[in-house]
Amino acid sequence: MEQLKPFLAGTDALAPRLLADIGGTNARFAWQAAAGAPIEDSITLPCADHVSIEAAIRAYLARIDRPRPQSCAIAIANPVHGDRVQMTNHHWSFSISALRQALGFDRLELLNDFTALALALPGLGADQLHQVGGGQALP
To answer: Is the pTM of this model over 0.70?
Structure first.
């Protein structure tokens, strides 16, 4: 969660944000009006239908009737090291800083999708957990 604290804090907490989960086959997008607000307008777009991640994001934003998001967080099925991302399971390649600038985001955060999943686990409630296997669960 430490990696996302800067994204979740400050003025970003009150601003609209675009959330995305990008895989090799599908790009899943959602809208959140502010931190803690419900996640809305979830749409899945096939990656193959878009020439770039920027094109997919623009297609999503064109489909929803919302103000321009100031921030965007993307979980991607790929290692994220430095500014340049070359997807291993799709042809998209991009600069994080150039994408941020092209889309007019004040903040753009990218992280590996498994990292994003791991960071989300502590936020699950007891009613959202399901034990796998037998025996008694340990804290």
So the answer is: yes
